[in-house]
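Appendix B. Extra example for self-study. Work through it before the problem class; the solution is given directly after the inputs so you can check yourself.
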Amino acid sequence: MIKFEVLKKHSHSSARLGVLTTPRGKINTPCFMPVGTQATVKALTPENLESIGAQIILGNTYHLYLRPGHELIQELGGLHSFMNWRHPILTDSGGYQVFSLNKLTKVTEEGVKFKSHIDGSSHFISPEKAIEIQKALGADIIMAFDEPTPYPSDLSTTKKSLQLTTRWAKRCKDTFQPGNQSLFGIVQGGMHSSLRKESAEQITALDFSGYAIGGLSVGEEKNLMNEMTELTTSLLPTNKPRYLMGVGTPENLLTCSSMGVDMFDCVMPTRNARNGYLFVNGGKINIKNSQYQNDPEPVDSNCCCYTCKNYSRAYLRHLIMAGEILAMYLLTLHNSTFYQTWMKRIRQAIEDDIPFSFSWKETAE
Amino acid sequence: MIKFEVLKKHSHSSARLGVLTTPRGKINTPCFMPVGTQATVKALTPENLESIGAQIILGNTYHLYLRPGHELIQELGGLHSFMNWRHPILTDSGGYQVFSLNKLTKVTEEGVKFKSHIDGSSHFISPEKAIEIQKALGADIIMAFDEPTPYPSDLSTTKKSLQLTTRWAKRCKDTFQPGNQSLFGIVQGGMHSSLRKESAEQITALDFSGYAIGGLSVGEEKNLMNEMTELTTSLLPTNKPRYLMGVGTPENLLTCSSMGVDMFDCVMPTRNARNGYLFVNGGKINIKNSQYQNDPEPVDSNCCCYTCKNYSRAYLRHLIMAGEILAMYLLTLHNSTFYQTWMKRIRQAIEDDIPFSFSWKETAE
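Solution. C-alpha cells for the complete assembly:
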C-alpha cells in the first residue's frame, strides 16, 4: 500500500511538494514517469533510469497483456523481476490503448471487445480482467479500467461515457484485493466542466488511493486542457496523489504542477528523441537539421547527461542520419535527463518557495 | 608508430602471444577487433567496449568517407575524438567495401570509380586517396588500398589482380607519412597457393609495419580458407603482426590463432546479435526460438556479461520479438563479450603453454 504526504505547499501557485511511499521505494513529487510500454523504457537500461533520477516508471497493460502475456510475466516473477527494475512501477489499465490502437472496438456494459494490433486476434477486457492482468504484472500502483471519451464529444455522449467509467471503476474497486498494490481511480468528463464535476464526485466517492485525470491531451487546445486540469484538480482531495495521464511538454508539466498535479507520464521525451527532437532549455532542436552537421558543441552545454558530456551535435547528427542504434540510446538518454531535471527544478522551486522563474516553449523550426 | 613483440610461442601449435604497442595503448594478441563501421560499434558505447576488454576497434574508411566525410571528422578532431574512443583504432582502406557494396565499379591502374550506395553519387578512390582519407580519420593503424580478388577467380585473373594490389601497395607506401600512424600491407592471391606465395613475397618486400591476409572468408569452403591462411601466415615475417581480415567464427579464430594469426575483425558477433543469434559455449542459439519463450535462465550461466547477469532468455526473446531497441544493446553486449572472452582463453592457453582444450562449432538449429 502507498502512503502520500504533502510536505510543503507553494505560496506562489497551487503546487505542492510531496513524497509518495510505496513498498518498493519513495517517489518525490511532482514527478515524471518514463514510459516503459513493452517492459522496457525504449533504448534505456534500468541503470540508465536510476542514473538520471527516475524513481518510478510506467508499464502498459494493453501491450504486456498481448505480448508477452501477463501470465508469462507472472510466471517469471512479475514485471519488476522480468525487466530488472527494482523500483516502483505504475501500470495503466489498458483502456486508453484498447481504444487508440483499435479502429473496431465493441463496448458493452460488461467490457470491451477488440482485436490485437499485432495479429488481429480477438480479445475481451472487462474491469475485472484489467485488475486481474495488473495483479499478475504486479505493479505497485494500478489503474481502474475506464472508457476514455473521444475528442470532441457532445454533452450527452460524454455523460454516458463518464457514467460507464464510474460503474467500471466501482467494479474495479470491488474486485481489487489491496495487498502490496494500490488502486487509482480515473476522472473523465471530456471538455465539459459540469461533467468533469460529476465524474470527480462519483470517482472520489469510491475512495481510491489516488486519482488520475484522464481524457486530456487528446487534441484539444492547450488553454482548454489547462482549464479542465485546473478544474478537475480543484475537485480532488488534497491528501491523495493526483496524476495527469499522458501529459506532456515541459511547459505542460510546469503549468499543471502549479495547479497541484503530482504525477505525469508521456512518451514525448523518448519518442521525440528517436525522431531527432531534443529538449533543451527554452525549446526543442531537431538534431537532423543541417546546421548541426559540423557543430562541435554538445546538445546542451548546461546539461550533465552522459550524451552532453561526451558527444558533439555533429556526431549525434551523423549517428541518426546513418540510422545507428547508438543514436537512439544517446538521444533518449538526453531527453529523459531533461525531463527528470525539469521536475527537479520544479520541486526545488516549491521547496524554496520561490516563483517558477523558468519556462519552456514549443518552438517551430 | 607501433611496436610488436612476441612474448611467447605455443609449443602445441604455431600460435604466439604478443603485445602490440601503439601511441594510444597496448593490445594483447591474438586479439579480436569489434567493427565500428560508421564511427560506432553498433549499439555499444565506448564504455561498454572498455568494460568487455576490447583494446582496439576497426573503422570503415569507405563508410566514413561517404558519411559524414573524412574532412568533417578531421575538423572535429579525428575519429577517436569524434566517437569518444580514446584507445587504438585500425581503419581498413575501403577497398573491400568499394567492391562489395557496388555492382558497377570501374578499375583502372589509377584507382577505382564507383557510385555511393547511399545516394548514387560518383566517387574515385586511388591508393593515394585511400591514404589521405585514413590520415584525416587518424587511426593508429591504417591499411594499404587493395583490390580484393572475387571468389572464384582463375589463375590468370587472380595473378593480374594481385599484381595490381602490389603496385597499389607500393604507391600507398610511397605517399604514406608515418608520424603517429602505421601502415599495413595486404596479401592477396585468391585460392591459388603459387599466387599467395607471389603476393606475400612482393608485399613483404615493401616492408610494412604489419601484414594482413585479404581475400579470404569470401564464400570458399572452411578447409580451403584454413589452407590458404596457414600457407600465407607461414610466408609472413615472424616479427610483424599478422591480421586475417573479416574472419570469423569462434572456431575460425581458434584455428587461425593456432596458425600464428595475431589480429581478427568480423561483423559476426554484432550482426548476429541483431538477428537474435547468440554465441554460447559450444555453439550458437537463436533467442527468437519459441523454446525460450518462458525460459527463466540467462543466455549463458557461465557468462559474466551484464546481459547474462541480469536478464532471462524469456525477457530477451520478448524484447527482440517486440522490436525493442534494448534487445539490440543487450544481445550485442553478450556476443561481443563472448568474442573478447574467447580471445582471452586463447591467449591464456598460449601463456600457460597448454593445448587448446576448448572448441566451438557452428550448429544448425
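Self-check: Chain A has 14 helices and 17 strands. If your reasoning did not lead you there, revisit section 3.
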